[in-house]
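Duplicate of #3305? Posting structure anyway:
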């Protein structure tokens, strides 16, 4: 496995710029498609929520589990694909030289991990979407607890370990790059990378769910956090700064639950 990884290291270093351009363009288009679909879903939810409660169905009735899964995967594409561009480009260079199975299999494994989270996210969303729309105070307390939990997770050793793997594409390949010349190995490697990304970002998405899920402003803010954590020179410091911001928001929500209405609209 070590020799295979070293061969992969050498081959990826020799990859041509054309591969990088094509992969970047493909991920960008997928991310744009994800943002457009998310914007459409947010608009549909907003339309449902503007009617009188006696005349309009709830957002929960308006979206089935299948519809939520589609929306969730689109949201993952919008928020996560820009952040994983470096590792996908590295893989694509190896694939272009015949050292790895087609890049789509790696991406498929990655997306599968996040798609599996749609079920728990759907249950959480269904539990709070109507009370959130009605401005019930207990939802603000749940949101505050979620912000506090996310703040704590941001500074845990496990978060830092997952973030190190995400911030070091070549190191990740050297450790998990064995067997990727086969499709099964490529999918497995994508699953591993997805698992590390999940370890980095699950708490950020818990925050998004408790704020109504398809909230475009919070999607944009959290996407910026994810991209910077994984790719900026001081990504670890950004994670700590985000923890401080989350803790502050949690305190505000506990002190004044009505603030939740203002940060979700």
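Output from current build:
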């Amino acid at each position: 496995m070590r020799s295979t990884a070293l061969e992969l290291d050498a081959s990826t270093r020799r990859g041509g710029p054309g591969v990088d351009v094509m992969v970047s363009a493909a991920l960008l288009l997928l991310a744009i498609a994800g943002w457009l679909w998310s914007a459409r879903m947010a608009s549909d939810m907003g339309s449902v929520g503007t009617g009188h409660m006696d005349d309009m169905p709830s957002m929960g009735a308006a979206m089935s589990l299948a519809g939520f899964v589609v929306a969730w995967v689109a949201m993952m594409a919008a928020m996560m694909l820009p952040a994983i561009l470096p590792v996908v480009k590295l893989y694509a260079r190896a694939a272009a030289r015949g050292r790895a199975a087609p890049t789509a299999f790696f991406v498929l494994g990655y997306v599968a991990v996040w798609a599996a989270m749609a079920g728990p996210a759907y249950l959480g969303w269904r539990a709070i979407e109507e009370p959130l729309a009605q401005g019930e105070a207990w939802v603000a307390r749940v949101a505050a607890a979620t912000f506090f939990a996310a703040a704590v997770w941001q500074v845990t050793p496990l978060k830092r370990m997952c973030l190190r793997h995400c911030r070091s594409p070549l190191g990740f390949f050297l450790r998990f790059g064995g067997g990727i010349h086969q499709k099964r190995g490529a999918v497995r490697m994508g699953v591993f990378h997805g698992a590390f990304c999940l370890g980095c970002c699950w708490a950020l998405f818990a925050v998004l769910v408790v704020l109504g899920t398809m909230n475009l402003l919070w999607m944009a803010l959290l996407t910026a956090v994810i991209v910077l954590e994984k790719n900026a020179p001081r990504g670890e410091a950004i994670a700590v700064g985000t923890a401080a911001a989350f803790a502050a928001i949690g305190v505000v929500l506990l002190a004044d639950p009505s603030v939740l209405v203002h940060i979700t609209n």
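Confirmed duplicate; merging threads. Residues 17-49 form the longest helix (33 residues). The chain has a mean pLDDT of 85.
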